[in-house]
Amino acid sequence: MNVRGSDLAMLVLGLVIAAAARAASFAGLLGALGVAFVLVNVARVVGWPDREPPLSRRAIAILVALILVVPLRDLAGRAGDLAETEGLSGLGEHLADRRSLEADPSLAPPLVPGDRPLTYFVHATGEHVRVRLGPSTEWMEAEALGHDVFRVDYDPARDGAPPPRAHETLASIEVDGSATTRTLLASTPGPHPRWLHLSPDRTHACVTSEETDEVVTFGPGGEGARTSTLDGPTDCAIDDAGALLVAHRYAHQLLSIDGDGTRMIELGSLGALSLAVVGGHAFVVTDAEEAALIRVGLLGEHETARVALTGHPTFVVSGGGALFVTTAGPATLSRISLEGTIDASRALVSPAVHLTVSPDASEVVLALTDFVEDGAPHLGNHYVEDRLATFDATTLALREDRPTARRTPRQDHAGDVDRGASPMGLSFTARGTLLVAFAGTDEVWELDGLAPPRILDTAPHGLSAPFSAAELEDGSILVTSPSSGRIGTFGQDRALRSSLALALPDRELLRTDPDALQVRFGERAFFEATRSGISCQSCHLHGGTDGAFHNIGGRLAAPTLDVRGVIGTSPYLRDGTYPRLRDLYEVAVTEYRGYREPGGDRAQNLEAWMRTLPPPPTLVARAPERERRGLEVFVRAGCGDCHAAPAFTSLALHPIEAVFPDAPTRAEGRVLDTPSLRSVASSAPYLYDGRATSLDAIFRDHNASDRHGHTDALSDEDLDLLIVFLRSL
Amino acid sequence: MSAAADVDRLTTRMTLGATALSLSVAVSSALDVSSEHRLISGSGALAITLLLFALACSPAATWLAPKRVELAVALRRARRSLGVLAMLAALSHATLGMVGYLGSLDLGPILTVPWLRDGGLALLILVALGLTSFPIVTRTLHVRAWSALHRLVYASALLAALHATGAPFGEAWVGITTLLVVLALLLARPIVHAIALRRAARPGRNAT
């Protein structure tokens, strides 16, 4: 191998130019070499000898050592920038996810939840597919949808759950008798008591734990008792007669427990999300087949009224002979009569985190992350600010808008916020003061008008990231901490009187199951406030989405993505900026000034927790034949080229103008990470800029170029079938 | 028949064989996708496979030179033909991609997405190498240091591998395999060269 002086000169000159120009991309490096090439050729033309002798090895080594060391050192210093520019950072994780999804057979999501049903999709070349999610689960027959796509509906209660402390499980996929194994993440969350509900006389309280299918009741004195319920209890209520009612996400019935025993009350729908009891009726909001408020008689045990709602309902509370219902996507607050008439409704900028009605039923108070009384919603997420908004209970007119995120003397730098972040639960006391639980700053406030709040710090009592607080008749205050699996009872003097531990304390978990502790810390970090007062919860409400538009770090204003079901789908964010989930922590550090207590393993903890979140449940009724025909249309329109089974994303980045050349939002130079279509029915608004408000509108109104799938040639029936298939995901 | 004719015949056969194999890879790659992206994916696979064959020619020729001189010479000649064919396939791939995927001849999007940019740079290098493979071009442009430029073929192959790794209409293993093969060939080059020198230095053997 002969090396000549001109060859070395070209290389050295190229590297010196690259170093001087601070090149941190392949194009920059090549450009520098190109310039060097031209210069060396010019030198040869004007006089450099054509027949130069080859250099000796020693000469080459000395020259390389002397000349290259400085530019190479300089370039090495920018290797990180180069890796980021060229998409090499985190390439290993991205390729591992792609390889997992492109294998034959492949299965998604790579997660086995021990607490809730989950639908899996398998991509396999074969006729007959069976799946077993681990040694402790049963074999499940997969339903063939066509085009090598199979569906498996898993229910841990029926098919067996992974062992409680397992964090990995070896799944088997059998295709036409030939089995392949895949390693999946096993997740069995502990008890998560969230929102407390008081009986009308305030002598009793209840709270559900959806993860462990139980309800905890408290009597006078604050002693708690645990009772098993049906699958996925989402909310509870206690009626005038002292009967306990429980609503469930995965059961068609309400559970009624009183002195006479336990009864089932047929609801006629899955997906109950919130429950209120008034005048012998239970009112339930559900989002299964369609968003609705359902009224059922507690004695007649049948549905007596149903009110269709727009958007995705989140809460229903009662007060003053009326119901107050909040929805997300679009975010609204409505007053609905007990007969089912919508008396008043108003738009909100972001969905309510929680709400409550004042004891005299004159006001409704909402915990919000953003609010604009008139005009267009804010676009930038620096406008996000936790607040309590008080509305007139009759007209829903705004009475008071009170930001809660506050600076305190504990601040380290001007502008830092360490109080009043991530309000999660609201409850009035009998005296008319308002209790607010702040998960972001580990505290409960008691607010009495405009006076400074009386603050109860909860973390020292093992109640981190509290969700709700409620005062019993005797003045004791119950506080729930879902991430700790604990409910504390504080006396009137605000000293901890007792604590009901539904889950192991942190110390014990560190000894017995450190991985579970990491997940627990990650859950807390999700709610923890940054110095700016913003937390992950501020936009990804309850791990989902606020349905609003945000512009993180001067990128494109885009609707918030759901953080559930993201395991195995690297890269992340709309533009695929971050190859690993833990990289999202950088957003908190760079955009929101980091945390008051920096360091630790927050990034890894957050990643550990987010990986355990399954996609939101799809509770639509099955229509297998129409779904199969919908998949035919899906394939024919080319949707599967990018939204490839089994995760319904190929994890690829596309220039936006290649897919949406006629988009009204200027997108030149912007990149789009192909989103997964799992649970797409509940993730409106759609497209990277959120301009499509329904699945139908994506194809009918926003695909004039016919480049986001070839849908121009599809008939109305084809489009209907396509949407049936998409809704089934 | 003269030795030169034998070499010519060998060169033609090897070029045709490598091209046929590359076409076979291209067709199998195209079967993995479901619509017009087949052509794009297939042409890309063709270009990459031809490029890998071209890269493999040098170390293979060095290895064979002491015993199979004619074959080694034919391999070195085939390298040029395969490289030029790879460039033509890559140009076809780029044209198909711009029309079928990007929907326009606008270069803007190519600069936006890393995997597209990698492909663009790989093509740029291939075109430069392809053009300087013809003496008439180097003479006309007064390009004299073209031999050093041709070592950039490894950079082109690495960029093509990264392009294939990120591209949406193929499978990641194509890119990963390409990356591994290019790295292996890059490592093999000096090793094979050193072994060949040692062989040539042994007494009783004829160096090439």
Outline the secondary-structure elements.
The complex is a heterodimer of chains A (729) and B (208).
Chain A (H helix, E strand, L loop, with lengths): L4 H16 L5 H21 L10 H21 L1 H7 L5 H12 L3 E3 L2 E3 L4 E6 L5 E4 L6 E3 L1 E4 L2 E6 L1 H4 L8 E8 L2 E10 L9 E2 L6 E5 L4 E5 L5 E5 L4 E6 L5 E5 L4 E6 L2 E6 L5 E7 L2 E6 L5 E6 L5 E6 L3 E8 L2 E7 L3 E6 L4 E6 L6 E4 L5 E6 L18 E6 L5 E6 L19 E6 L5 E5 L4 E5 L6 E4 L10 E4 L5 E5 L4 E5 L5 E6 L4 H7 L1 H14 L8 H4 L9 E2 L7 E2 L25 H7 L10 H10 L12 H13 L2 H4 L10 E3 H4 L11 E3 L21 H6 L15 H12 L2
Parallel strand pairs in A: 2-9
Antiparallel strand pairs in A: 1-3, 3-7, 4-5, 4-8, 6-7, 8-9, 10-11, 11-12, 12-13, 14-15, 15-16, 16-17, 18-19, 19-20, 20-21, 22-23, 23-24, 24-25, 26-27, 27-28, 28-29, 30-31, 31-32, 32-33, 34-35, 35-36, 36-37, 38-39, 40-41
Helix pairs in contact in A: 1-2, 1-3, 7-8, 8-11, 12-16
Chain B lengths: L2 H28 L6 H28 L4 H34 L5 H5 L1 H18 L3 H6 L5 H4 L3 H14 L5 H30 L7
Helix pairs in contact in B: 1-2, 1-3, 2-3, 2-8, 2-9, 3-5, 5-8, 8-9
What general outline of chain B do the C-alpha atoms trace?
globular
Largest sheet: number of strands, sense, barrel closure of chain A: 5 strands, mixed
- Average of pLDDT of chain A: 86
The proportion of strand residues of chain B reads under 5%
- Specify the helix fraction band of chain A: 10-25%
* Order of neighbouring strands in the sheet with most strands of chain A: 2-9-8-4-5
Backbone CA Rg of chain B: 18 Å
Q: Low-confidence spans of chain A: pLDDT under 50, at least 5 residues?
A: none
- Quickly give the structural class of chain A: alpha+beta
How much helix, percentage-wise, in residues of chain B?
Answer: over 70%
The total of beta strands of chain A comes to 41
SSE arrangement of chain B, N to C: HHHHHHHHH
- Alpha carbon gyration radius of chain A: 29 Å
Strand content of chain A: 25-35%
Report the total helices of chain A.
16
Largest interface: A-B, 46 and 46 residues
Total strand count of chain B, please?
0
Looking at how many chains there are and whether they match, the oligomeric state comes to: heterodimer
Mean pLDDT of chain B comes to 79
